[in-house]
């Protein structure tokens, strides 16, 4: 018997489910504490969020959808939250876009993407999730790919069309999710992550003539790491290198990878490979796996292309249970939007989109005077939301560690963003944190970077997080940081040697409008 797609089995009224979810989030928001709630990062007004979804620019608005559990601050049945903007500077909170209502997604509308079809209609592809036994994960899960379409120009009303790719349960085990769709050489193409029946992580590729009926073609990528059992949130896109050659960047979030040195220190880790690809063939990697972000709280990135720009958001995952923000009525935020390009070194760079500069409301040029050994100076006695541009003269700096102590509160708590000369790294060190995970994360600098004249740091400090961009986005570190009560100072510090800054500029950052 041939299945006709899409398959649609409604078991709940979608509008009623959306109304219930909105009411729950509104109730949680009334109790929300804002001490760590972001001022200039996207977050839900309450509840739990994870992966960015459905990223696009459509009819004059930028759209960010995201995984949302509206009934609490722990992970639970997934919905799609939604914010949008005309300028990527000021954002509007839109109604919850999707809730579980079909049999094929009755336990969650999982992650997916957006794409504009040949008729100019905005379509969404996402994963429908249900537990095999109808109640929990003890007997496994069944995941399939679903389709929806925007019914209005603001993309606030989505119509579900049903299942378009079923899971071959004889070939895939539990994990079969996160579709990404684009048009390649006139052919609609889909990839998604798979855990094979023997528990190995792969990315499968499909094609379609009508963007609804999909045919499996082949395995695009088979992870060589035998510990990896699933590749979540795959992304795949071309970028030009400095010589004008097209390279393909394969992004995925690996589950099961083991830590080794500075690599894979988080519970799960998002990385990329650069290589070549021809339709009809597997991806050929030309680099090893590299981390997209070396911080303690980065996962599940997704990108989209518009007007020649490749823009990426990631989810700042708490990873550990009982994150401090969960007791405040919310959990999770996005990174800043980042523009992706291949640098002169041939590697992937990600930098804040230039629109972020429009959030600056005050600028302070500090004297770039040298610091003596073990000297520390106050830059700002109470910084709630700031950007700091710090360039370090590597030829005349002798400190073993030097940098910025942010979220420094009267109880002695702080997070340290520093250049570590002995290790040859830039670190985000939370050993002095009073709340949340401690430990540190490090971005290993290349020999070329260590032998350069300058090290460039661009540090974004929000109420409960730190994002550090190193050398024009060659490395990034994103970590939560939960300051204690009282003023939140920023100090410049030099340890066991001198620090010679060549630039020290601070910008106050205004709200993006989602508070």
Structure keywords:
single chain, 515 residues, mainly beta, six-stranded antiparallel β-sheet
Radius of gyration from the alpha-carbon trace, in angstroms: 23 Å
Low-confidence stretches: none
Count of helical stretches: 2
Number of strands: 35
Q: Approximately what portion of the residues adopt beta-strand conformation?
A: over 45%
The residue fraction in helices comes out at under 10%
Sheet/helix structural class: mainly beta
The description of the largest β-sheet is:
6 strands, antiparallel
Spatial strand sequence of the major β-sheet: 24-35-26-31-32-33
Could you give the distance between the termini?
Answer: 52 Å
Cα shape: globular
Mean pLDDT level:
97
Describe, in plain words, how this protein is organized in 3D:
With 515 residues, the protein is mainly β. It contains two helices and 35 strands. The strands form seven sheets. It has a six-stranded antiparallel β-sheet with strand order 24-35-26-31-32-33, with no helix packed on it. Strands 25-34-27-28-29-30 form a six-stranded antiparallel β-sheet, with no helix packed on it. It has a five-stranded mixed β-sheet with strand order 4-3-2-1-20, covered by helices on one side. The longest helix is centred in the N-terminal third of the chain and has 17 residues, at 14-30.
Provide a concise account of the structure shown.
By secondary structure, the protein is mainly beta.
